[in-house]
Amino acid sequence: MNAYLKRVLDETKAKNANEPEFLQTVEEVLTSIEPVLDAHPEYEKACLLERMVEPERTIEFRVTWMDDNLQWHVNRGYRVQYNASLGPYKGGLRFASNVNLSIMKFLGFEQVFKDALTCLPIGGCKGGSDFSPIGRSDGEVMRFCQAFMTELYRHIGPDVDSPAGDVGVGGREIGYLYGQYRRIVGASGMGALTGKDIKTGGSILRPEATGYGAMYYLVEALKHDGEDIKGKRIAISGYGNVGWGIMKKAADLGAKVTYFAGPDGYIHDPDGVTTEEKLNFILEMRAKDPMHCKPYAEKFGVEFVEGTKCWGVKDVDIYMPAATQNDVNLDWAKKIAASGVKYYIEVANMPTTNDALEFLKAQKHMVVAPSKAVNACGVSVSELEMAQNAQRQYWTAEEVDAKMQQIMKNIYNASVEAAERYGLGYDLVAGANIAGFQKVADAMLAQGIF
Ligand code: 2IT
Q1: pTM for this structure?
Q2: pLDDT surpassing 90 at residue 439
Q3: What is the average per-residue pLDDT within 105-127?
Q4: Atom nearest to 206 CA in ligand 1
Q5: Quick one: which of 24, 54, 168, 367 is 20 to 30 A from 348 by CA?
């Protein structure tokens, strides 16, 4: 292993021993850029890797709020402003009970390279809280969001840091956060949050962007192999914003999601989630109870398999994990490889453990694509929302969609080209890491001490 890489990995592990998710992504990204480090010995002198693994700033704060029964609660809020060498910090907020500093730092680190891949002027960042909106009333969610923003507002702004949603933060939460932000700072700063409702400055297609973009990326990967998206069957995990977008765009393109998994088990619908009725039902089901997908099987008379995941099913062409981190471990990866399915397209942030990812990449019959490229359309449309806000304009769906398609095509091509440049062949995972890394590295070097 490159000596500089080994030293930084060892130091990072020693310094952050209690942050497993963070160490997982650092190891995955840095080992895959080894050929770049070999070609650029000057990076070591500039402490480039040491600077990249250390967030520019980590903000941690107390969030105190009161529930509907007038009980007090204290949660922890975070904003990890990772790297602004390419532009204002940009990245989502995650509200989930398992949020901790390790998860915030893993997501922030990934975001730096993802945002670089978009070729838009945005730096990388992540934030959130160990508060979960699941099972909370609208009033409770609003009071929590207000309390959260009452601290966060001083650290963000349209030219500084612009949060958006992630797991547990959708349109409702962004609305409450934005309302509080404006209550504090006044009428300015529309671009200080993205994922807003279209009536308050949101971009058309932002809710759909991540799922649609994943499908645009998939179309490119299929084209590379002379394959058509039409008629393809897809198995996904997750049916949140991202999974729903995949279902809808798949249907638009003549493909279909025939399996989807939730926390309670998985659904098998051989006809696919293609009709408006089914797509709308998923929205209703999720709003009522995000933890159970079984009602879909009851409503449409299809199979529900309780307490397990759909990885390993054979009657699909593509797997797309779109739920959360470490969804696919080595055991599941072995089932996936044994199924004979060719395409493994990551969508959720870091859905695969490192050993599982290595294993899948080593399968000669498989094409593996990494989440930081595949899911980058979400943050891209967030940046398009900031651009629209700065211009005081709304763009049409056609304008936004054309940009989305172009951005995803560019990301795919840049990944292919970067891997080839370093003699790695057709390696979409290393290619994305290298293309993102190189962009950030160049920007950091150009700005001297940063
Ligand atoms: O993981 C992600 O890219 C996001 N949660 C979206 C970030 C954004 O600023 O839209």
Answers
A1: 0.97
A2: yes
A3: 98
A4: 10
A5: 54
Q: What is the pLDDT of residues 166-178, one digit of tens each?
A: 999 999 999 999 9
Residue whose CA lies nearest to ligand 1 atom number 9: 91
The domains found in the chain, sorted by start residue, are: 3-190 (3.40.50.10860), 209-374 (3.40.50.720)
**CA 78 to ligand 1 center in whole angstroms:** 15
Kindly tell me if the per-residue pLDDT of 444 is higher than 80.
yes
Q: Name residue 430's amino acid.
A: A
Nearest CA to ligand 1 atom 10: 379
Kindly report, residue by residue over 377-401, the tens digit of the pLDDT.
999 999 999 999 999 999 999 999 9
Quote the percentage of the chain above a pLDDT of 90: 98
- Which residue bears the tokens 């009033």? 139
> Which stretch of DSSP H or E encloses residue 76?
strand 72-83
Residue 126 is a catalytic residue: yes
* Residue 267: closest CA among 309, 232, 233: 309
Edge-to-edge order in the sheet of strand 57-66? 57-66, 72-83, 123-129, 89-95, 161-164
CB 234 within 8 A of CB 246: yes
The response to whether residue 356 sits with its C-beta less than 6 Å from ligand 1 reads no
Atom of ligand 1 nearest to the CA of 166: 5
